[in-house]
Queue: 4 jobs
Job 1
Amino acid sequence: MSKSLYMSDQLYLVLENGKIFEGRSFGAKGEVTGEIVFTTGMTGYLETLTDQSYHGQIVVQTFPLIGNYGLIPADFESDSVGASAYIVKHWCQEPSNFRSEGDLDTFLKTVNIVGLHGIDTRALTKTIRESGVMNGKITCNPHSVDGKELAAYTIKNAVKNVTVSRTALFKSQGGKHKVALIDFGYKYNIKRELLKRQCDVWVFPAHSSVKDILSVSPDGIILSNGPGDPADNPEIIHMLTNLRKTNIPTFGICLGHQLLALVNGFDRFKLKYGHRGANQPAKDMLTGKVYITSQNHGYAVSSDSIDPGIARERYVNVNDGTCEGLDYLNFPAFSVQFHPEACAGPLDTSFLFDRFTGMMEENNYAAQ
């Protein structure tokens, strides 16, 4: 590795609890405030960076070497970077991969995302695990940080900031089903999985009306992943409450899972440090089978708030017992907290897209 890597500018991460971590700059120059979260994925840094669920957050990679297979735009999960800034132990200056079209440092400079490397990411992760998620600021002058202002930082208008601005149609080969994908910050692989199953996909902005969504006569509805606290979206919750009355088969993923729970009167709570990584075990309570899943969320549906007359808790996190999925009993819908589209991550639960298409086929047959 060249000397230039170690001669880069000094930079600091200041946490709201007063701890300071010293490192070096890479990517774009600047100062950034955000919620500090960590992800344990050993691969998938490109999917992590372009996952809009990280909006407003400073992402810490626990795996020590990042960037070794370069920049591969075909693997992006959106057209822009979701994270506010990026922290790694080491970044690879000379990636080796036949698919690579560049390096991580150049990419972060191009998209104006601040990077910090060389800090003790193990110590930082332990701090978050022990104390919980907290705010932090990346700065070249740690003594200028106002602790009160840092602690008061909140992520605002998260879904509004990441959703598409207009409706778009993506045609499949076959066009067997029409799916309305409501975008709260959706990952492109959700769309890819639907297209593979002969679904024409209409992507709708998060604040679309029920009338707009029904105008395409969808066979099914997907509620996508996205950033922030689900309770910060009262207008969307109101829209989904009315959309639910149509009895169109619905599949909620991550934030979509949480929003559907709120629509049905259930509650949510903030996890101490969230589930972010590609090795989260989720148990199917019907079969007893455990799936390894990819996850990225800071909130969870409260199991105690679930009305057994409305929904059945289908999946549970093996590590902490939190709700990982619901089967609804009063209308054709189910939802999961994890990412069945998975990239990057395990493909254990991709069958849920088959379950969704089967639900659409059953509903269409019943309507004939």
Job 2
Amino acid sequence: MLILESTSTGEGTGRKSSGMKNDAGALWELLGGDAGCLESLSLSGDVWFASPFDVTGFARDAVAVATLGAAELHAVRDGRPMARVTVDSLEACAAFRSEALFEAIGWERPPIWDPIAGDYRARDRYVRLHTNYASHRRAVEKVLAIGEGTATREAVQSAVASIRGAELERAVVEAGGCAAVMYTREEWLTHEHGSVAKDEVPYSRIAYDGGAIPLADLPRDVQGRAARPFDGVRVLDLTRVLAGPVCTRFLAAHGAEVLRIDPPWFEEVPAVVPDTTVGKRCSFLALDTEEGKATFASLLARADVLVHGLRPGALEGLGFGAERLRRDYPSLVTAEVCAYGFHGPWRGRRGFDSLVQMSVGIAAHRGGADEKPAPLPAQALDHGAGYLLAAGVARALTCRVKYGKASAVRTSLVGVANHLQARPLGIALAKAPTFPETAVTVEPTAWGAARRVPCPGRIGGARGTWDIPAGPLGTSPPAFR
């Protein structure tokens, strides 16, 4: 039976969270999961996030469906009953703060945020500028006519103060940068994109048309028994920063061979690399060259899953559009994540968790658009999207094993935001509890030892573990083992 427990931390009202069964079950139903699998799921734990939104419940439920999906795949591959799946809110919430709880031991990790990234009061409302990538910072400096590399928060605030928020957002985006005006939920629902994006769901799956793939044509090492759910599953990872890497990090923890591909010129946000590359091998590959495209095609031929966060049209422009993937790689499961959704005028807009929170009304929940932004206590949209996408990959692989058909799964940060805003309210806490030392473990990285959050959720009492320490990008050849 589904065991549901919720206890007070003693620091808040003690009011129990509502809708726990419905929320976990609803997400599993959205994934197309068999309701019978929920009998193997146990959820428990205290509230760890002080927020009017049910961030704790969402973290637990997102991790739960990902872990349940992995357990289902394992059972189908092994031909055995489902193992018990347990998820505690402490583990799930710590995982939603993994990049913040990561701590280097004896070496220096770069700051998570660029010095001028953050919220600024424009002429009429607040605007958030995202400058963690050098190109995005240069776009802000160009728009504000501040010398490259010389901007300070004071100089940015002085320049922003006389500009209307929407004008600043538009100018930065047109310059190739990332910015977001803070809207109230009511304003967003009437916005040109918000009025469309309000219908985005946190997860969707598209089953490929046509007949089943002959079992003999499926990768042999994914058919039979496995020690871990994703053993033998080869994953190509074309994702950046957080949501996509969270997905592939989870797959790696449960046995997948994950190969991350980046352009040779690419510089990831340095602070996230030690947290998100664990369990993966990382390669550079120039997909804009014929040699690079040929290598990528050979990788796709051996891959079971392609996870990407490229903007619409990017793969098509490289010659790897959806039609070619379905024709040339019929057993390939594709998983896609984006920021602002797959429909509407902003479907191709660059975006990040903190920006989407500003756009959709989450950051403005304390008052109007001119009040100081109040973000979530975690980058819950990123992490939630990552675990939901991992759950989708697991379910797609289960369907491939059972029916011989591949499919495409996808999620978006705005779809996840819609789900979070529609959930029952969270528990009011006087202050958020401090995560205990037991929330992290000491593990090696290429730079030295570090405290990191382990993989959340347990299957048969065991949690996922990573075989490869985190390391820099581009350190492995572009090839599966």
Job 3
Amino acid sequence: MEMINAIGRRKAAIARVIVNEGKGQITINKRDLADYFPMDQLQFIVKQPLSVLEVIGKYDIRANLDGGGIKGQAEALRLAIARALVMIDPECKKTLRASGFLTRDPRVVERKKPGQPGARRRFQFSKR
């Protein structure tokens, strides 16, 4: 199996992933998964596509994460891993699609409007 490249995005986060056959090592920005995402919840999010397909420990994953916050980065990485797994085995696409791991979440922060304190917030109205 050759190297498989995939990209995942969420909010402002971008994840570029390279997947090889290996022992299940996940490296993010040259750091270990547990080191980069200390929270178990975020590690769970990243490993979801692997656990659904029951291939944990079968592939080595190298990821390059950029932008956004930790939750957005974890979800971008989940999408990138799911896309890479589909490239490896197109049969698993149906399973990942049913779990919702192949859908890019389009929600992003609404921009701040000029003359206002925030995106929707208005300055306090004064009658007099």
Job 4
Amino acid sequence: MNTPPLLTTREIREVEEQAARALSGPSLMQRAGRAAAELARDLAGDGAGGVLVVAGPGNNGGDAWVAAAHLQAGFHRVTVLDAAGTPPRAPEAKAARAAYLAAGGKVTNRWPDGPRPALVVDGLLGIGLARPVTGELAALVARINGCGSPVLAIDLPSGLSSDTGTVLGAAVRATTTLTFIARKAGLHTGDALDHTGTIVVDDLGLDPALLAGRPGALLVPEAMRGVLAPRRRNTHKGSFGTLGLVGGGRGMTGAAILAARAGLLAGAGKVSVGLLAPEPPAYDPAYPELMFRALDDTIAADVLVVGPGAGHSPSATSISPFERTLLPSLLSLPKPIVLDADALNAVATFEALREAVARRERAPTILTPHPAEAARLLRSTTAEVQADRLAAATTLARELRAEVVLKGAGSVCASPDGTWAVNATGNPGLASGGTGDVLAGLVGALLCQGLAAPAALRLAVCLHGAAADALVARGIGPAGLTAGEVALEARAVLSRWSAPA
């Protein structure tokens, strides 16, 4: 997968230090400021209100002062709102401010009266923010958000954590974010998705080799083409494996059937369904290709998806047959297994099951928790998981020695070796019942077709979101989008991605 790199704040700082030692010509701040000015010029056009540049006290403010100087030199009407009111501490940022003032640049310390700006450039706070935005800075953020003008954020919207994507007190809602050197992890998950707008990356002319070997990546549709190879003509159903679905207890058979349908539509050669309900249906009238079989027959499949609708005991003192005997036996099998929904809840509740997952060595394990399930597995809270989604996913992958996807806005995939990826596809239409079951079925089908566990998980996650995006683009959803529609659309998207070149 040729996926764009995602960097943490620490990694960005490392790249900046390496680049600064080898850099010739303009400094990183000069390059960033010029890039911001060029994009601001395009976004503002000939707007009568001019450009309002909001400059903070740090290096992000230094970028803003440089941008303002370039805009002024290009005969744009520009005003800098100097949020600090005093020269920045960093020498280069201080020099950038002085240069703008020496050239006769217009400065104010409050929001200017008059026409609404054609564009607001947010250079208030950068990637070094470590505490909540409060007081006058929070009021200024609110003023930016309420002004009605397009907003260009320099590097990231002020008030966002560049590592977690969470809002630290208050955050700017940008129309466009111009980020430098590489994409930051926090721009693509959690709260950030409602604050970044369109993300533009400028590498500032740095050597791409500086970004090589980093553990993080962004899952984008362009990188998914060809991950699943085109099918040879000389094949048969056995070439694409048998997927077994175990789940669907009383009142929840639909969850297992949705996962099974998704596995069928995503290309598994055969799909066997072992339902746990006392009186399971004999077949699926919509997809009679699915084989409803006894559990012993189902678990003979090449790949297992376990847990959708299985049912879960309310406490560790009350244990169901699924948790007491079936799940432990499945975990002992030397075949790939995807644990979803109630299988995850069981692992979180019973220490013996947790240890069994961590001990699996002969075949890969994939976990697909949503935030509440991840919190149970981590013995944490949903709020704590959401506050640092990357840390939650990577911790689970390491502790349980499994491939993990932490589902949600900007799903995070993590591997036991420390590599991770954030998904760029998907929309709020996926916030409906059954879509997680569909994802589990997609993962299982891709494993059946021979993909290694990390590739199968990442392709399935990106495919799942891309299918929802394709539906919304045609006017289907996001409100009312159903899991069954996502499974059908995933088939079409996967066929395009795996078509011969």
